[in-house]
Amino acid sequence: MFKKTVEAKAHQRLSGADKKKLKRTIRDRFPRASDADIDALLPPKAEITVAKFQNRVHVYGVEGGFPVFFDVDGRGTEIFPTVFALWMVPALLPSFILKGGEVSRFVIGGADLMFPGISVPPEGLTSFSAGEPWAVKVPGNPAPIAVGSTTMSSSEALKANLRGKALRITHYYRDLLWESVDGHYVPNAGFFEDVVFEDPASSSSCQASYSCEGSNDDPDNQQNVIDNKNIGESDKTSDVISETNAASSSQNDPQNAAEEIAENVGDLKLVDSVEAAPPNVEEQLSLSIEDVDSHLDKCLLQALHTTVKDKDLPMPGSTLWSNHVLPCRPSGITLDIKKSSHKKLSKWLQAKSSTGLITVKEDKYKKEIMLLSVNRGHPDYLSFKPEKRQVQKVDQAGDHPASESRSPNVLDVAEVYKSSAHVNPIFASVGADMGKLYSASEASDVVFKYIEKENLVKPTNKAIVVLDATLCDALFKGAIKKGSTYPTEIHKKDLGTTFINRMQAHHVVTRGTESVVRKGALKAIQIVTERRQGNKKVTKVSSLETFLMDPEAIASELQKKFACSTTVAELPGKKGLEVIIQGGVIDDVAKHLIEQYGIPKRYIEVLDKTKK
User: CB-hemisphere CA count at 13 Å for 41?
Assistant: First the structure.
């Protein structure tokens, strides 16, 4: 639904009558939603806006906020909540639970949900009809990752032996609707760029036991549960889940329960597993608070030695946890910050800061703790000997030479900003270096330092900043039409973005040991398929040099991979080279660049001119 960029042709506010009509439609469409839930998504006194797109899609949201609902055909018959709405009210829709976090790669990659990817509980699936709206979740994470409509009823699914397409996905995390929102965010630390795992801050283990959430509260639904025993499933995962539930219910003999779990997990054969999980299940159940604290400290020191670089600081605490601390945990160990003595990530990092190992500060505006610096001369840091681990072992599906050949292709892209004539007075006032490159958060800190220095926060509303002459010129001079009145105040949530937009955009691209800084926004790789000489197709790839890739080498590599002829030619009327490949391999080239060269999907633009 939102895989291709489509511009909105109209934006308008809803009238009072249209608001009431929209709420009635939502109430009929989502019977699980209470009046409080609907008011939380569409506040009674707020202005509701609708964006009308050329493909007939209508997107509804609160003015100045996030989109909460979208109408597929603009007629009110197929309205779905956005992921932002589901993160606010997770129980708005029933949910399918995936078999694991790895399955989420396909869902947020744009694929529909198939029945083999759903975790089926021992008692079977809850009854549902074709065309019902359902959400998709990852086990252990309460935040949905996608929404769509069922393609068949539950009875039809059983007749098909639980094969085929279960949910036609209409919207998912990281699609163009999510990316188009200013200030888009993720609900917890389990959300990564291309995959979603369990939330490390949540201990909602009960979610892994059900494939259909939220339907057991309704007594009518309890009578509609379908017996799935005669399907003849051979899925070992479902067997282990059912045995785990049985073990957890037998509280009278916890030792036997743990042994039963260990036996069943020992029989489980998972392709992507790391062999070390089964022996550690019993150990995981017996971890004390002191053991969890010890694992946390060791993982933090391992991360500080191996993956946390000074150039990446400051770093959000959630990023430190999900991208650095968790990957350093021992095999088979699940770290849960709630089972430690600190209970919260912020308190744990503040405790480490009090020892002098790291320096942290809470961002008052983003409501998140930030890692500012690492004291690499601290006794704990110097005395710790990092382990040599194969951090990427979980992702290895092939042999070692393949992974080693990709290591020089590691890509790091950073968007940075430099002071411009518009904002130079702000930088000069706070004593900031005007020739330095700043990250978005660092640039925002500069303007907020100026606000604190000049005491520009509105006394009656702390979320509003009163604009003095210097700040007003920095933000709006030259951007306001002649004759229009300059604003006198601005909301804090809009200040950082507005300030950054007035700076000079730069980008830093690093691949292996090579790094380059360029002015302007980063240009995406263009992949275009055209038709030539009758029914023959060619695929053109350009802007590879932007990401420090040699077009000649890429052409030779693709020639061998796709067994076709390739050539390199100059771009007509432009600087740079393009790789021309015989055949329509647009999707294969994009997948190759993502997997082998680490190009983020948002920096790849594809256009198939052969489709009418």
Answer: 30
